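STRUCTURE REQUEST FORM
Protein name: Helix-turn-helix transcriptional regulator
Source organism: Streptomyces fumanus
Requested output: structure tokens
Priority: standard
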Amino acid sequence: MDTLRTHGAGLVVTGEPGLGRTSLLRWAARSFTAGPVLHLRPGPEIRPRGGPSALDLLGHWRAAAGDGPLLVCVDDADQWDAAARAALGAAAERLPAAGRIGLLVSVAGHRAVDPALAHLPVVRLDPLAPPEAEALLDEATDGCADPAVRAELLAEAEGNPALLLALLRRLTPAELRGHRPLPRPLADAGTLAGVAGRALAETDPAARDLLLTVAAAVRAADGQDTDAALVREAVRRLRPGRATPWPDRLPAPLAQVEGRLRFHSPLVRRAVLATADPDHRRAAHRALAETLDATAADRHRRAAPGGLPGALDGTAGHHLPVLLHRSWSLPAPGLTPTDPSIAVDGPPTGPTTGTASGGPSTDPTGPAAPATLADRLAARAADPASDASHRLRATAFVRAAELTGEGPGRAERYTAAAEQELLAGRPDRARPLLAAARACAAPPAVRGRTELASGLTELRDGPVGDAHQTLLLAASLLAGPAPAQAATAALAAADAAWAAGDLEACLATLGTDRRGDAVSEHRVGMRALLQGRLDQAVVPLGHVVERAGTDDRPETLLRSAAAALLLGEVDAARRAGARALAAARHHGSAALVPQVLEYLAYAELRAGRHAQARAHAEEGLRTAVRAGQRNTAALHQAILALAASIEEAPDVVARHVTAALATARRHGLAQAATLAEWALARADLGRGRPLDAADRLGLLVLPGPRRGHFAVWRLAVPCFVEAAVPAGRYEDARTVLADFADWAAFGADPQAAAQLARCRALLAPAEHADDLYRHALALHDETGGGEFEGARTALLYGKWLRRRRRPKEARDRLGGALAGFERCGAGVWAEQARAELRAIGAAPTGRDTGAGALTRLTPQQQRIARYVAEGATNREVALTLAVSTRTVDYHLRKVFATLGVRSRVELARMVEQALRTTAQP
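Status: completed
Returned output:
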């Protein structure tokens, strides 16, 4: 919009149906107040003799604009005929010289942008991110949706706002509040077709069959595309004897790249399947199964010329895609209760429904009895030798459950599907499957697995108190039939209590199990550590750490990293974490990646490597959001806040802290909340605000009901002591220092000894402080605990020396501190070191902070900077210079950005240094 102040411009907006192209154009039209808005459609006014022309369009627009700017909105330009689109594109090319005319064009995402519009910049609308979708849902429902219903609606909509609102319109108030069951399928054919709209308007029968076959093939594929040759052969089988089995052109919703076919829009793919005739849809699946069978048999014959054909010896027809297509080719009434994508044929009912253990079928049309096919699907999905993805395994388990009679077999298969969805990083898909499993009668072993999967879901994306109780129930149910899984549930319950900051619950959950496997040793060692018995924790936790050298499973490596962090072996934690990350990615364990990155980021933070911690936490945050793990995302936000607290970025710290605390308070995440509050306090301390830092940290570290997380608050003690001394809170500092001395003696934190010596130096009389500071620096050198902590000790020692009027020694220490801060990117702390060096008349290296810095400002900015440095408020500066307060605000922001300062205090120091420099002869 701002561009239209001087010249014209154009923009193309594209996206799949339902993402809001039309709504965006309407919003732009309502928001445009600088002039008239023209909604353009092809009609007589732009169709003179000989067809439309660019000059005709421009003339029409100029007339509408008059002397001011004009906004032209063109919705669904892909629906225009070729001549009209060509004229539109040619007119758009002339916009920069045509006056202040803006052109906003929307084009459906499933159609390629016309070459005539290719010169215009393109904005592609993406599905809503989870927080955005949640906000839209809460706004539309006033927050009254039942949590389980809310989660299912969000999962079903997949970030499509129009589909989300359409799903809401289907529900009654009782259904929305969870008082009545939801309609099944939730996204039925009518709902999907209503959102897809014209994207389904394909009239050519061959094209419709191609679309249906691609959609059916992708349904049983590991990705979003499928092999074009497979589809071509399946279409030939689907349309036998037809003169044109393959359409002359590729339908607009499809794209073909390197022999692979895919839909431009997942929503359109879902709608194609949902709106297809059921018999024809089953026929497409049958054609795909036959094609895959024939292809596998042919491949087997070529590989073993003298052997039996693959279709006969059993090796061809057992792959998951073949089995899935066969299952979907079965005729069956009813509706699928849990398939999130379409309204399709559901489980057979009545006499044709088999049991979990198998049994004869009365269905003469399918190649296998439903119960037998269900068993084969489940067995193949559970096969560890299969290269199928977690997503495809989940699909197979769901279909096996739908083909299984009521009872423990169905519950077990729904649970197995949920477990695979969790491994794929989709807790939103796991929740309805777990609800379906709970609706079936099941023995303790199956029910325990269901509760374990549910508890793990809540641990990463729900109230951790609820997760703790659910996991305890799982451990109790599994104790007899599956003791190894019971131990896993108990350790996960301890993780939930740890996240909540409930030390007593954590200890009670860990128990005294000594079976000798990795999980039990982790529990025993963790319990001993929390009880303060390091000597009894070292051996079992050490065994867990050592397993990283012999076991490449991501879960084992993740436990090794966690155990190493408990022992303070930061380098071992980093190595195990790096291997766990590689293993999780290799195995496609999307759910583990955010957690591994959490341990890696925390290990880097403990080692003082803030830049590396930030890199891991940024990636961890992205993957956690994608995987729907809000609790893990909150921990990454807190780590990012801690990393940013040493830099010159208070706004970044505040943003991460706000995000972390929003989830931490809702879900009871004491660990994330403590880390976030510590980050805020450390940012205050770095910017020279010890009183604020001491107030905030006091709540975290001093005894009382609001003390921070039991495993984190001690780490913040050195910051509190550093803030409390200048604030005059000596007794408080001594109180927490006694606890910190026990922590340092415990030996689980390699930096604690040096930090303890530094804190004692801050509180010691002058005759002892010197030796304590030197001792602290020597300990930093011995432990190699990172640049940042050593530089902080050197800074405090330099300040102490300067106050004792020992400038030469102070210069050496402050110079070393400055170099350390600059090496680790601690900008705000580096500025403290520079200020101390300026105070003793030493010229600091690095950023230009003298008169040269002020020369980068405009004359008006220099005047404002000097008045502010003298203590004037923005209003006083405005009155002095006869400008508005807004003008002063604007220029002052520019001053701060140009000089790289974050506060008026820093600006005053810089101006003072500049004046002193220019006054020298």
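Reviewer notes: The radius of gyration is 33 Å. The chain is about 60% helix and 5% strand.
Form closed.
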